[in-house]
């Protein structure tokens, strides 16, 4: 995928995940953003070759939630 298309995908997907984090953890948007950007899920998401960008925002949130609860996360089978 072209770099610009990949960046556009992230620009659409990341705010949705941050919104879910803010809703489910009672964080404001800034705190939710910091939590997500510092997560392992985000570090894999920003690598195009992991193909996490094709997952839904809800799936990415669930991965984030798992990481937050356990310190690790599993890749869904569709990833």
3D architecture notes:
- The protein has 79 residues and is mainly α.
- It has one domain.
- 66% of the residues lie in helices and 0% in strands.
- The protein is built from 4 helices and no strands.
- Helix 1 crosses helix 2 and helix 1 crosses helix 4.
- It is globular.
- The two termini are 16 Å apart.
- The model has no long low-confidence stretch (mean pLDDT 92).
What does this entry show, briefly?
The chain has helices at 3-25, 29-37, 40-45, 57-70. With 79 residues, it is mostly helical.
Instruction: Write the H/E string, N to C.
Output: HHHH
Q: Determine Rg (CA atoms, Å).
A: 12 Å
Strand content: under 5%
Helix content: 55-70%
Question: What is the typical, i.e. mean, pLDDT?
Answer: 92
Largest sheet: none
In total, how many beta strands? 0
Gross morphology is globular
- Helix and strand content put the structural class at mainly alpha
Question: What is the count of distinct domains?
Answer: 1
Q: Can you count the helices?
A: 4
Identify low-pLDDT runs.
none
N- to C-terminal distance: 16 Å
Write the layout of secondary structure elements.
Layout (H helix, E strand, L loop, with lengths): L2 H23 L3 H9 L2 H6 L11 H14 L9
Labels describing this entry:
4 helices; mainly alpha; 66% helix
């Amino acid at each position: 995928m072209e770099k610009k298309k990949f960046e556009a995908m992230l620009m659409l997907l990341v705010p949705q995940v941050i919104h879910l984090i803010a809703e489910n953890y009672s964080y404001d948007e800034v705190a939710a953003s910091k939590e997500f950007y510092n997560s392992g899920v985000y570090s894999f998401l920003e690598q195009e070759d992991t193909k996490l960008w094709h997952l839904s925002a809800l799936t990415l949130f669930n991965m984030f939630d798992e990481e937050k609860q356990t310190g690790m996360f599993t890749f869904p089978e569709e990833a």
